[in-house]
Amino acid sequence: MKAVKYMNLEDVRKEIDEIDEKLLGLFLRRMELAKAAMREKMYCGKPLVDMRREREILNRVSQKSGDLSVYSRRLFKELMALSRSYQGSTSQGETKLSKSIENALISDTVFPRSASVACQGIEGANSQQAADRLFTQGNIVYFESFAEVADAVRSGICDYGVLPIENSSYGSIHAVYDILKDGNLSIVRSVKLCIHHELLAKPGTTLSDVKEIISHEQAIGQCGDYLKKIGNSVKINPCANTALAAKIASENEGVAAISSPACAELYGLSKVTDESIQNSDNNYTRFVCVSAKPAVFPGASRLSFLATLKHEPGELYKLVSAIDARDVNISKLESKPIVGRDFDFMFFINIEASVHEHGIIAMLEEIERNCESFVFLGNYQEI
Question: pTM for this one?
Answer without folding.
Answer: 0.81
